[in-house]
Amino acid sequence: MNINNWFTIEEIDSMTFAISEYGHWEKVHSYLVIGDEYAALIDTGIGICNIKRVVDQLTSLPIKVITTHVHWDHIGNHGLFDEIYVHEFEKDWLENGMPGLPIEVIRRDVIRDITKPLPESFKIEEYEPFRGKPTALLRDNEMIDLGNRILTILHTPGHSPGHLCVYEAEQGYLYTGDLLYKGTLFAFYPTTDPLLFVKSVGKISRIEHITKILPGHNEMDLNKNFITEVNRACQDLLNKGLARHGSGVHEFKDVKIYF
């Protein structure tokens, strides 16, 4: 099977690429950001197919993997790379796995609702989420210099304790991971925090220069207005005392939030 039959490569600009898995119900996006000296790979996808072969077609630079958060659909190919970075609050998850999430549940979600042929080498009974030690830990407002491209790490907890967004001020690109995307936004699991989710959405809404929002899932046609709308919805829920676990699914014009 040709590797690109599973992945869809979309050019954001000549040095920035989305590597997407539209054949899976999660429609996960990873992003390759190429500088002069290094390239950053923001998340590594589900792990159904080898993302490194795609990355190697696009750049020969050393790769720094930036983990937006340690959920299985974003760390699937971490084991193919030498340099892995994660927020300090999810170091333990990366090394030991998420507590209380059986492998049977993960494998069921990995294999369901597939709309493209799977690689012949993929066997669901052998699928395991990545576990390993990170190269280094990331903190809020830390900067990563790729050589004439600087990425700023923003700690945006709520969806998970160590969730990160990545902001490139010069380009105005904001990589939002699972904090923000089109579809139902989730903060109802025991490992989530609705109040922190609301705070994190407010944090990114205050960024003035945003030209592109590059989410972890679904459509990539988002703009700054979408952040404003999500923030307005979050503030409404907060004011009504609904920014708490168990308050349910809240529907707004173009936004759904599940607390």
Model description:
- There is one protein chain.
- The termini are far apart.
- Strands 1-2-3-4-5-6-7 form a seven-stranded mixed beta sheet, with helices on one face. Strands 8-9-10-11-13 form a five-stranded mixed beta sheet, with no helix packed on it.
- The protein has one domain (about 5-259): Metallo-beta-lactamase, Chain A, CATH 3.60.15.10.
- Helix 4 packs antiparallel against helix 5 (about 225-240).
- The chain is globular, with a radius of gyration of 17 Å.
- The model has no long low-confidence stretch (mean pLDDT about 95).
- It has helices at about 50-60, 90-95, 105-110, 195-205, 225-240, and strands at about 10-15, 15-20, 30-35, 40, 65, 85, 135-140, 145, 150-155, 165-170, 175, 185, 210-215, 250, 255-259.
- The protein has about 260 residues and is α/β, with parallel strands linked by helices.
- The protein is about 20% helix and about 25% strand.
Short description:
The chain is an alpha/beta fold.
What's the arrangement of secondary structure elements?
Layout: E1 8-13, E2 16-21, E3 28-34, E4 39-42, H1 51-58, E5 63-66, E6 83-87, H2 91-96, H3 103-111, E7 136-138, E8 143-145, E9 150-155, E10 164-168, E11 173-177, E12 184-186, H4 194-205, E13 212-215, H5 224-239, E14 249-251, E15 256-258
Parallel strand pairs: 4-5, 5-6, 6-7, 11-13, 12-15
Antiparallel strand pairs: 1-2, 2-3, 3-4, 8-9, 9-10, 10-11, 14-15
Helix pairs in contact: 4-5
